[in-house]
Amino acid sequence: MSPDLAIVVAAVALPFVVAALTPVLFRVLGEGTGFAGTAVALTSFGLLATQYGREGAVALPWVPSRNIALQFYVDGWALLFALLACGIGALIFSYSPAYMHGESGLVRYYAALLAFMGSIVGVALAADLIAIFLFWELTSLASFVLIGYYTADDSSQYAARMAMFITVGGGLFLLVGLLLLSVVAGDVLGPGAAFDLAAMLENPDEMQGALRDRGLFLPVLGLLAIGAGTKSAQVPLHFWLPNAMAAPTPVSAFLHSATMVKVGVYFVGRTRPLLVSAEWLFLFASLGLTTMTVCAILAVASTDIKELLAYSTASHLGLMIAGFGFTSVYGAEAGVFHLLNHALFKAALFLVAGIVAHEAGTREIDELGGLRRDLPITAAITTVVALSMAGIPPFNGFYSKELLFEAAVEASHHHDIGILGWLYPAVAVFGSIFTVLYSLKFLSLFFGERPEGLDHVHRPPVSLLVPPAVLALLAAFVSVDPQRAVDLIVQSGLEATAVDPHEMHVGIPTSYSPALGMSAVTIGVGLLAYPTYGRLHDGIRAIPRTVPQVGANWWYDTVVDGLSDEGRRFAETVHNGMLRTYATWTLGATCALALAGFVAAGAIEPTALGIKATVPIALVLLVAVIGAVAVVTSDSHIAGVLTLSILGFMVAIFYILASAPDLALTQLVVETLVLLIFLLVIEEIPEYYEVGIGRVARDAVLSVAVGATAFVTVLVTTDARPDGPTEIARGYAEQAVPRGGGTNIVNVTLVDFRGFDTLGELAVVALAAISILTLIVMRGRDEGRIGPRGEDRPDDPAGARSDGDPSGGDDE
Amino acid sequence: MTTVIMRTTARAIVPIILVVAISLFFEGHNLPGGGFIGGVLTVTAFAIIYMAFGLDFLERGILGRDVDPGKGPSRDRVVVAYRRLFAYGFAIAVGSGLVPLLFGRPFLTQTYESLEGVPIYGYLGIASALVFDFGVYCVVVGGLLTILSVVGAE
């Protein structure tokens, strides 16, 4: 049964609509706006739940001429992700009012959170490549606002910029990959399906064959992997995720458990049937397992509970990516099931971290411990979800990790991958040992000795406890009866992501298998190594301190700082506040680009210049040249301006002789106006000043270059013109009276045939006026701040800048 | 610059320039001219006034308002009027382009009407492009005068 378009669109649009109305809502509800958000999230959840069991694509027309539609595809995988986003979103919204109590900027917070939830639901359901990209980037934008919530805090701003830079940058790679995909799809499936991911997923073999034929398979795979890898914080671009914990804790819980970072994983699962192959296995299994291990080790090195959770999130994302990377059905099972399990336990853990930070006043691991007496309910919640994160049976994390081990073992049975067949399971076990270690460390916040320095810890309000408790109950439910969760939603998600889906069964293993052995090793070694946690922690921390190049963050800082410094230095050279410097750079760059363009296009070729000037034209041009020489040799501004206008008027006369009355009229009028403006401001320009020989030489070179460029341009452009009037010119001449109703072809062309161009030029004139106005108003404000404004003002800074003024008039 | 000769000349030529500018604007569709040229010529007339009589002349001498000497030039009422002029001109140009959409024609489609037997003129062609051209005229006059007066005051 195909889904209902209206319901799907409503579920996606509702959060955006309410986000736009947030200022109004906030005025009415105040801090209770969070509960309105809960209502929105639950409504979207309910709307999507009515589509449970349906499958198919529905579309709203968007840009029909380009075959782009707002297309939504509903199946188990899309519903699983969208329902998780809405469900956890509802809990986050009800957690927020108590946590964010008394903060300012809550309108922005709730609006961004709602828009973010809407974009995630959009990514989950979108099936049109353009729509996917749009929602994908919307999540980056909304998360930028959310991570940078504390606008006065530098680290928060740094983290927001970093997340934006990495995820939006990755999104651009994704865009290129999607466009390549659409080009191929347009050829293979017909132009109507160029952007239709649902149609591509129905014909995976044709698509993959066509991609390989064109040599585009690896580029597309790589580009999509970069896009997904940046979003899902895969090594070596994982570092934005721990930095993003600068956001308020509810945001971290939402972004890092169920939504933002899962988008990459979701997309990898979505395109898996399309691109799955030996290269896919190699790329994603290696990437995922590396991330899983590296980030688990970094989590052990963390000193802050949110940092620990953030690294652990990246590590679990690696687990899911690796799961989808393995081409066997177990891989898909691991990916889909862990997406659900991780969302349940990680959101709860972040919310617990929020409670601890809120009530104990610190997030430092060393300063916390023995909290079970102060926070008994929180301790119970943590026990369930932390053991689930560690993958201890019978908690739900165990089942999906078991599936990953199985997939890792199976990998060598499906593809001939040599030593990797051993390496993959070994790395999976190695990384999981660290997972057990940091999970136990998090649990130890509630057990063991209570540190001396810890003050009295308050009981958290009920509204902070309910959301993590709900999640822990759900996790417990999945732990007790995993098969029911599988039947409810995981199986249908599996069918969308696996190539050869079969009936999925999970439960406590009853007989020995290699995967069970691996789990036993993981848990056993983890428990045995736990007493040495302190030494491991210190050892890992020592590495980046001695070799900073090891950390990806170091590279980010070096590159970004280097670019900013270079940019600043370049700007100081080019924009030093002197008009002549601006003019030099602008003119020089224009000449260089124009000449280089002509050379590259091979347009310059030596031709005989057929000079056929009549005597009057030659005379007029001669006078113009004399005027130009006089400008250069004149020794006062007045003489210079007057001789310059001789040149201008001669050009006007040249236009008359060349029978272009409109041009001549314009030239005359503009020349007069410019002359007047010059005369108006000439008193403000300082007397002649001495210039060094170097500057004269530079000006001479620049002038010759500009003259040469203009000369070559005229030569090249007029040379390419065919003899006699072109078809366009003839058309304008013939149609001016019958279609335009005017005998002045120039004017009819300007206002009728090419009215759009004229409108653009009007915009330029208006913009020039607005920008000059803005500049002067801003300058007036600056001066007002520096010193008193009065009659004595015009003398001081006017000299350097007023010679720039007439150029504003000149441009028109 | 504000000599007696200059002032006397300005008194004589400014009205002539303005009349020529307006006629250039109106006959532009059939003879050399048009909104842009007419606009620039109008600005020239204003520039001559500024040169001959000073920047405050328009506000104080013609409109009879008091001018606060310390006031920023961009807040002069005359400058505000210029700013409005180019904003309205732009609106007129865009609006004249939107009208054809009501008749199911593409954006900026123009048409014209020929009137026979009009007194004095005999024949008169009225093009809808004149409205668009009027927008051009307003934007050019408003924009350039804004720049001129604000920069001139500096």
TrEMBL record, chain A:
Region (Disordered): 784-812
Residues annotated as domain NADH-Ubiquinone oxidoreductase (complex I) chain 5 N-terminal: 62-110
Primary subcellular site in the record, as a coarse category: membrane
One BP term from GO: monoatomic ion transport
GO MF annotation, one: antiporter activity
Topology in the lipid bilayer: Multi-pass membrane protein
Span of domain MrpA C-terminal/MbhE: 695-776
Domain NADH:quinone oxidoreductase/Mrp antiporter transmembrane: 126-414
Keywords on record: Antiport, Cell membrane, Ion transport, Membrane, Transmembrane, Transmembrane helix, Transport
Domain MrpA C-terminal/MbhD intervals: 623-686
Domain of life: Archaea
The name this protein goes by in its record: DUF4040 domain-containing protein
Source organism of the structure: Natrinema salsiterrestre
UniProtKB/TrEMBL annotation, chain B:
Annotated compartments: Cell membrane
One of the record's GO cellular component terms: plasma membrane
TM spans (from-to): 12-29, 35-55, 85-103, 123-151
Keyword Oxidoreductase included in the entry's annotation: no
Bilayer topology term: Multi-pass membrane protein
Superkingdom of origin: Archaea
UniProt keyword Transferase present: no
InterPro entries in UniProt: CPA3_antiporter_subunitB (IPR050622), MnhB (IPR007182)
Na+/H+ antiporter MnhB subunit-related protein domain ranges (all copies): 5-146
Designated name of the protein: Sodium:proton antiporter
